[in-house]
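Hi all, posting the design record for the shared folder.

TITLE: backbone redesign
STEP: 1 of 1
STRUCTURE INPUT:
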């Protein structure tokens, strides 16, 4: 924060003289208000004037097409708006330039001159008014629909942003981030470059907060609340927002930490790790505050304070959370089978969990407010979806019989088993939404860099599953359809400006960003039904998803366990399940099998308890090192053996009766093919860690597959009763070393 000096005076109707601060908004077409139907009232400098009030004189010095670079195709310093801004002798200068420098005529040729040209512009305003306070801005986004996005603009935009940060750190100017508040709102950019009136208002509020330091007062993370569970094992970092330069004092477990809020309103404090337990008391408070200039006040004294710019002490702000626990936190996410509530399952009676019962398992329900059923949403729902108001706000609650009825059955059973096994408080966050696609849960930057084409016209392209695209268009029909030639036709431009939970990036922005980097131990993921039409694409997307979340949660070793699709009469599912099996790559990313729980006619099978407990088992084994937790038999390979085929498995432990048939005496589900690729049913018998196969129809075995039906009755399990996965593998013609391990 800084103390404002006043360089101009205004005279009121009663003849009283009041100081006025001159504010210059310098920039290109975004500042100017290009594309706004009523820019005289909706351009961001106009809205900024309304927010700041009479103590300020805000002027718009934006010019469409202006470049920062003096050798650019339209240098700002050669335009009349620059000369007008110099004559204005502003006390406060906000510069937003650089977007047009991404033109191939500019940055590739003159990028090395950007720092020098920007500093020269800054110095020009200091010459005009040596006391001027100057901010430079990170640029507003350019979205994938821009014609030059993939031909260079995307990469040059990123390079210029880094350069602007460098200038702000070395040129004694403030930095305003105009990118982050708008990056998750492509619907506010009709042409992918210029924000609409709503976007301009967001810019104005962002600039207003930077100028005044008003960020809305003390606001701990929205994830914090009574009954919350904090992750044990590492230092406990708590964070939030407050007004600039406020001191925030945090008391946790009778230990006090304090921090000064940064100029952008953020604060964080860290406490040493403690053992699992609770409840603890957590208190946040501000101990010194100054009222920002644009914060409304009442009374004559308040009005004088606002006009004079003097700060005054205000009453203490305090937030108290009475019951905080320390233990293990897991995020359960995905689509409808993870969303499926306990009350609708076969095993719907809640079971007690852990020592202390209700205190041991704590739930954070972030379920959807607007299910993606086969209906047209009203316009107000479409508007809420566009404003990221899809999910319930985070709210922690104990796992009482009443609370768990409408909570995810799989997430509940996983949490219950973890609480029983670990005997520490368990926190389960669930934000699953039915029908959502893998791509909808990946952050925008990852897709822009790694798979940008999936962002383009998703509603009518080939990337999305036809069912998912059709359902999305049905939901948003009232927001995107227009009359054309007497028939209702989708308007592609309006479609791009209406969002839906299935579209790329949406669920990351609506469901992951609200988690506010909450520290979690791992993820339990159940999704794939809406991507099973394209196995190769899903393999790319799934890896991008894991990397995206590990980066967001700032933990490259974040545990990521997931459920393989169940049995259902959909033709692509056997190959998709096999693909999911191959995606498991380490102890930090393991799969559990569910095909034995499926329903041939209903994707929403009702037997959910085994799946939740299998997720808990894989977490106990692979994340917590509990060797007796058990895992499904994993195929190691196959080789020729005594005229047949020997298939070896991992996941067979001493002390258990090993591989056997879950039902009946015969193991079913194995098939063998020769070089012709035609599969025939094989007879199977167990020998140690292997299954021996014979098939008279195949004299030269080349491939083996198992459970290769959409809805399968394959029944191979191990001593834990855990089923083997669907798989297809080649047969080796020589004995492999793993056979004898």
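Okay, here is what came back for every position:
SEQUENCE:
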């Amino acid at each position: 924060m800084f103390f404002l000096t006043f360089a101009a005076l205004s005279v009121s109707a009663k003849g009283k003289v009041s100081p006025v601060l001159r504010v210059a908004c310098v920039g290109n077409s975004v500042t100017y208000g290009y594309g706004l139907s009523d820019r005289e009232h909706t351009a961001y400098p106009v809205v900024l004037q309304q927010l700041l009030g009479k103590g300020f004189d805000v002027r718009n010095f934006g010019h469409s097409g202006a470049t920062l670079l003096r050798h650019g195709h339209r240098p700002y310093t050669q335009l009349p708006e620059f000369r007008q801004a110099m004559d204005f002798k502003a006390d406060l200068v906000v510069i937003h330039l650089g977007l047009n420098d991404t033109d191939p005529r500019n940055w590739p040729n003159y990028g090395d001159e950007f720092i020098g040209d920007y500093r020269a512009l800054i110095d020009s305003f200091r010459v005009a008014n040596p006391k001027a306070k100057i901010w430079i801005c990170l640029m507003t986004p350019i979205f994938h629909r821009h014609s030059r996005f993939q031909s260079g603009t995307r990469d040059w935009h990123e390079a210029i942003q880094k350069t602007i940060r460098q200038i702000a750190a070395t040129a004694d100017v403030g930095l305003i981030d105009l990118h982050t508040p708008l990056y998750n709102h492509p619907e506010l950019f009709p042409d992918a470059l210029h924000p609409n009136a709503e976007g301009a208002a967001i810019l104005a509020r962002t600039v207003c907060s930077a100028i005044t330091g008003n960020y809305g007062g003390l606001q701990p993370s929205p994830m914090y609340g009574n009954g919350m569970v904090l992750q044990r094992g590492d230092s406990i970092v708590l964070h939030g927002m407050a007004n600039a330069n406020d001191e925030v004092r945090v008391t946790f477990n009778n230990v006090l930490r304090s921090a000064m809020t940064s100029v952008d309103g953020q604060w964080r404090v860290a406490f040493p790790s403690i053992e699992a337990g609770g409840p603890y008391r957590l208190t946040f408070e501000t101990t010194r505050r100054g009222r920002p200039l644009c914060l409304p006040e009442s009374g004559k004294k308040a009005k004088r304070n606002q006009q004079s710019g003097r700060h005054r002490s205000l009453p203490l702000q305090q937030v108290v959370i009475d019951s905080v626990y320390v233990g293990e936190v897991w995020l359960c996410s995905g689509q409808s089978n993870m969303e499926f509530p306990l009350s609708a399952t076969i095993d719907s009676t809640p079971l007690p969990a852990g020592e202390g019962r209700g205190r041991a398992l704590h739930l954070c329900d972030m379920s959807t407010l607007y299910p993606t059923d086969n209906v047209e949403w009203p316009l107000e729902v479409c508007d809420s979806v566009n404003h990221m108001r899809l999910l319930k706000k985070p709210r922690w609650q104990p796992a009482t019989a009443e609370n768990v009825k409408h909570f995810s059955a799989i997430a509940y059973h996983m949490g219950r088993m973890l609480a029983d096994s670990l005997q520490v408080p368990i926190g389960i966050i669930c934000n699953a939404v039915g029908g959502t696609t893998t791509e909808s849960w990946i952050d925008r930057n990852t897709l822009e860099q790694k798979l940008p084409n999936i962002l383009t016209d998703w509603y009518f392209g080939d990337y999305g599953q036809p069912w998912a695209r059709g359902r999305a268009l049905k939901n948003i029909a009232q927001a995107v359809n227009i009359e054309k030639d007497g028939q209702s036709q989708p308007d592609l431009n309006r479609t791009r400006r209406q969002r839906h939970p299935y579209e790329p990036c949406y669920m990351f922005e609506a469901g992951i960003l609200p988690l506010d980097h909450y520290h979690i131990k791992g993820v339990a993921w159940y999704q794939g039904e809406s991507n099973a039409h394209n196995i190769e694409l899903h393999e790319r997307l799934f890896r991008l998803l894991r990397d995206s979340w590990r980066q967001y949660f700032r933990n490259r070793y974040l545990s990521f366990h997931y459920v393989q699709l169940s049995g259902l009469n959909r033709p692509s599912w056997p190959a998709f399940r096999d693909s999911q099996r191959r995606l498991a790559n380490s102890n930090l990313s393991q799969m559990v099998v569910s095909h034995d729980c499926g329903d041939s006619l209903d994707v929403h099978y009702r037997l959910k308890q085994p799946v939740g407990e299998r997720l808990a088992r894989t977490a106990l084994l692979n994340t917590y090192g509990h060797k007796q937790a058990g895992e499904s038999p994993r195929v190691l390979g196959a080789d020729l053996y005594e005229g047949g085929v020997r298939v070896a498995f991992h996941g067979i432990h001493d002390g258990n009766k090993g591989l056997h048939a879950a039902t009946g005496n015969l193991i079913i589900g194995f098939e063998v093919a020769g070089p012709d690729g035609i599969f025939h049913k094989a007879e199977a018998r167990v020998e140690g860690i292997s299954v021996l196969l014979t098939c008279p129809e195949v004299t030269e075995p080349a491939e083996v597959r198992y459970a290769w039906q959409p809805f399968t009755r394959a029944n191979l399990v191990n001593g834990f009763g855990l089923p083997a996965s669907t798989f297809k593998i080649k047969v080796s013609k020589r004995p492999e070393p793993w056979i004898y391990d």
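COMMENT: The first strand starts at residue 8 and ends at 11.
Let me know if anyone wants the other runs.
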